[in-house]
Amino acid sequence: GRSRLAARWGLRWGFAALSPAMIARATVGRAVAVSGRPSGLRRIGSSAAAAQSLKTPMPAVPGRVLVVTSGKGGVGKTTCAASMAWALGKMGHRTCAVDFDIGLRNLDLHLGAERRVIFDFVNVINGECNLNQALIKDRHNPNLFLLAASQTRDKDVLTVEGVQRVLDDLKQQFEYIVLDSPAGIEAGARHAMYFADDAVITVNPELSSCRDSDKMIGFIASRSKRSEEGLEPVRQMLLINRYDASRVESQEMLQLDDIQELLGLELIGVIPESKAVLTATNLGQPVVSLSEEPAAQAFEDTVARFLGEDRPLRFIEPPKKDFFSSLFG
Predict the structure, then answer these.
(1) Selected residue with higher pLDDT from 99 and 33
(2) Which is higher by pLDDT, 146 or 103?
(3) pLDDT at res. 22
(4) pLDDT digits over 189-199, tens only?
(5) Residue 152: what pLDDT?
């Protein structure tokens, strides 16, 4: 199995996104209105008004923590986390996306909120603000909120106690908390995976991505909080991103069966390679919001399967050639 696959494939690629460092000092007597305006801050005249402005509906049961992770960088993990969180919100589920990539945040860019970050995840952990002050409500998706990562701190500032306190508070306000984990098993990734109820392992259809993700599967199975406490194991699912059916057909990429054989996980989605991802990121919106795009439809299918709906896989076959394309190659 593995040696045969290693001899046939050895593809490499990656991408990086830059985000501006934007952090400002909030003045005393102001608070972010979580249910309020995109402008971010407004003055609150009384404690009663403050309580009303920050009041949020509570989920019927504590929310579930979904971590989106990968073994190596550059597989499109943040793209997947942003689109899954956005789709959950659009389907009516109150959702919070949390960026765990301390020092290298990008999730705010994908959700178009980079200019609205006043307080961040680390500020909440350190008690420099309360949780509601740091939450940013999406301008176009009323069920979606963002808790951004710090752009100026180091990942070592995260502690198990601090992260658990923030996640416990989020579970009381949201149905789903989607964690955008850094790649690998560094501090940010370990903390994100430790508290997961569900995990989406994101891979590209190439050997090194699958091999590194195999390590993550073992880490989540043995080192999560659920495994330590003897609870039901973390539900681990496989999401294949940047799938090019034509290159798979020409044996330049791993086939779906090969990837599932390597990782042995439930497959919840296959996202086709798409130029629309870069366009959407530059526009500050997740690709799933571009409803006519195949990648957007594949993300909608993925989230529906995550929620228990049975949907067939799409976009896994190469496009059929017309008569002239077949004739002239």
Answers:
(1) 99
(2) 146
(3) 37
(4) 899 999 999 99
(5) 80
Query: Quick check: 186 and 104 in contact, CB under 8 A?
Result: no
Q: Which pair of structure tokens corresponds to residue 76?
A: 């499109």
Which whole number is the average pLDDT over 122-145?
Answer: 96
Higher pLDDT, 192 or 29: 192
The answer to whether 121 touches 166, Cβ cutoff 8 Å, is yes
Provide the CB-side half-sphere exposure for 327 (13 A, CA): 3
In the block, residue with structure tokens 């589920």:
93
CA angle 59, 305, 81 (to 5 degrees): 70
pTM over 0.90: no
Instruction: Bin 141: left if φ > 0, else alpha if -120 < ψ < 50, else beta.
Output: beta
Highest mean pLDDT, choosing among 7-16, 27-36, 178-187, 202-211: 202-211
Contact 80/202 with Cβ under 8 angstroms?
Answer: yes
Extract the tokens encoding 148.
């951004």
- Backbone φ and ψ for 155, nearest 5 degrees, come out as -60, -20
Q: Where are the beta strands (DSSP E) in 36-183?
A: 41-43, 64-69, 95-99, 136-137, 144-147, 176-180
Phi-psi region of 40 (alpha: psi -120 to 50; beta: other; left: phi over 0): left
Contact 247, 255 (CB under 8 A): no
Beta bridge partners of 160: none
Task: Please name which of 280, 306, 284, 305 lies closest in space to residue 294, comparing C-alpha atoms.
Answer: 280
Q: Look-up: residue for tokens 């959407």?
A: 280
Give dist(CA 214, CA 210) in Å, integer: 6
Name the 3-class secondary structure at 249. Answer: helix
Pairing of strands 235-243, 136-137: unpaired
| DSSP H or E run through 237 | strand 235-243
